[in-house]
Design brief:
single chain, Arc Repressor Mutant, subunit A, 9 helices, elongated
């Protein structure tokens, strides 16, 4: 095999993950089937089982999401809420896997664990940069998550009007100040 040339198994895994992300986004965790995912990938269902074992393990692999959070170092402190609101809204607008994970997290413990892990490992360190006391970053990140996930649930899953048709800049204008407060305001214990 030539150096740099992808192995066939790598291409098969990639095809399975792409098909799984699309199928989980379209059908949700409960309705998506290994058979449908395999058909979408153009392979036999036994190959999906060979590489991933079962639907839960496949979902865990497909739900490996990099939030691609911005580095808040050097961002003016009074702009971090709006910056994060814009970032999260753009991610939700362009990544159906995030919606699939949110749908599944409501009813599946494995997906719920994956969501908690993702926010803990990716969001808490970013929030620690912006907040006055990094020791409070986990609580502040949980509050930021509550707003971001609530907005995503209403806009992309429940399709609650007028949030669904509200221009993105308006959503950001409403959400940004709340995130700003969670990130930088004096906490209740310090008052």
């Amino acid at each position: 095999m030539t150096q740099g040339k992808p192995r066939r198994s790598d291409a098969t895994r990639a095809a399975i993950l792409t098909a799984a992300r699309e199928r989980f986004a379209a059908d949700g965790y409960e309705r998506a089937t290994i058979r449908a995912i395999a058909a979408d990938a153009g392979i036999d269902p036994t190959m999906v089982m060979r590489y991933y074992g079962n639907k839960e393990k496949l979902f865990a692999a497909a739900a490996q999401i990099d939030l691609r959070l911005p580095d808040l170092t050097g961002v003016p402190r009074d702009q971090v809420g709006t910056l994060l609101a814009r970032h999260f809204l753009e991610r939700w607008e362009h990544d159906e896997t995030m919606a699939a994970l949110l749908r599944a997290a409501a009813t599946n413990e494995g997906a719920s664990h994956r969501m908690r892990e993702m926010f803990a490992t990716q969001l808490v360190p970013v929030v620690a940069v912006a907040c006055p006391d990094p020791a409070h970053a986990p609580a502040r990140a949980a509050l930021v998550s509550s707003q971001v996930l609530g907005a995503a649930l209403c806009r992309y899953i429940l399709r609650l009007e007028p949030l669904v048709t509200m221009p993105a800049d308006d959503v950001i204008a409403w959400l940004g100040p709340t995130l700003q407060r969670y990130l930088t305001a004096t906490g209740p214990a310090a008052r």
